[in-house]
Amino acid sequence: MERIKMTTPLVEMDGDEMTRVLWTMIKDELLLPFVELKTEYYDLGLPNRDATADQVTWDAANANKKYGVSVKCATITPNAQRMQEYHLHEMWKSPNGTIRAVLDGTVFRAPILISSIKPLVKNWKKPITIARHAYGDVYKASELRVKGRGRAELVFTAEDGTQTRQTIYDFEGPGVLQGSFNKDSSIESFARSCFAFALSTGQDLWFACKDTVSKTYDGQFRDVFARLYEEEYRAPFEKAGLHYYYNLIDAAVAKVLLSEGGFIWACKNYDGDVMSDLLSTAYGSLAMMTSVLVSPDGCYEYEAAHGTVPDHYELYKKGEMPSTNPIATIYAWTGALAKRGELDGIPALTQFAHQLEKACIDVLESGVMTGDLCGIVEGITPTRVNTAEFIAAIRKNLEQRLGA
Ligand code: NAP
Ligand code: MG
């Protein structure tokens, strides 16, 4: 069988621990036999980030900006314990944070569904994609502990020195204070990424915040979405038969639970943090959750939503083959390859990616699965396999599909 050729390099970001092991297995077994992979490789494994003083992360993010599409393996975000374990020169920042800052993107997360894993919400039939604005608000806020009586004020000093001032509260005793911000440019990027992603995946878009209480701050988010929709996106949405809805966040929660899914739910930073954990748990498993960062100018970074699965890596280092679920990492590759095929006009590449996804689903539907899923499936008796056996089963199915 002739391997599929690529024209533009896909930016490949390798990572850490068990997911680094999965990375090589997926490439060797499921990709290289069928595709002449053309990638620009960046090793974002923690040892190389340390050796390059994190330059490799910046280079990879800039390559993503240059070529448009990347696929990323899970990486360790260092903490004090990792500093010791890896003898690091510095506590390097989260690579995901760096890539997000370079691409100014929005993160979209969606579950992969199979018939034997029933969502906890029984009327959900289709995936719900969460779009989280990954900038500002409480994550970049300044906080103060107030020790006693006094006046707290919000002061803005303009470039020309003029001040706008507002009393927050006259404290009669100790308390706490918080100042958070966001930028019109970032809110606009967020809204554009959401509208573009809705169009590219053919799904309705919901945006929700609390503009009844936060009239200026959340009101700005609501207004930016509404303005961009009217000015730029209403026509393409109507042409595609899609809708944009604004809801109050509390009303949205009720509607989401009563819906059958199949739409994109855009959330402010904190709401998105909380709601994405709620959704991944309700859909069954973090190991079945895909994640893609989309920039307002149309760059894509695909990855799994889970981390490097360190406890499975401990087993692997002892010579055992763990039962780590590779599905979300495989889908990171298929998402990236399908997008590359779409952008470069290589339908065979996009079709291959879809066939590989179908092979994954076939194997899972047949009851063959990794340990994490065995405990949550219903209505079938699962066969527990290790990662190597699972990937071999997917390869066999894929070969049948491709007539290889
Ligand atoms: P994690 O690696 O996602 O693992 C948490 C637990 O979830 C695992 O112990 C395992 O449970 C289960 N799990 C996750 N993925 C699985 C899979 N594919 N197959 C089977 N089980 C899976 O999260 P963590 O332990 O909090 O973080 C570990 C490291 O990953 C940290 O250094 C963190 O910085 C990094 N991280 C990276 C990213 C990223 O790059 N996007 C995201 C999150 C975390 P059992 O032990 O019960 O089997
Ligand atoms: Mg969280």
Keywords for this entry:
14 helices, 404 residues, alpha/beta, single chain, 22% strand, binds NADP nicotinamide-adenine-dinucleotide phosphate, 10-stranded mixed beta sheet, binds magnesium ion
Q: Give the fraction of residues assigned to helices.
A: 40-55%
Low-pLDDT residue intervals, each spanning 5 or more residues: none
Helix run count = 14
Q: Using the alpha-carbon principal axes, give the shape.
A: globular
Please identify the oligomeric state: single chain
Strand numbers in spatial order across the main sheet? 4-2-5-16-15-6-7-14-12-13
Q: Find the structural class using helix and strand composition.
A: alpha/beta
**What average pLDDT do the residues reach?**
95
Radius of gyration: 23 Å
Q: Give a list of the ligands.
A: NADP nicotinamide-adenine-dinucleotide phosphate, magnesium ion
Per DSSP, what share of the residues sits in E-state strands of 2 or more residues? 15-25%
Distance between the termini: 6 Å
Major sheet: 10 strands, mixed
The strand count comes to 18
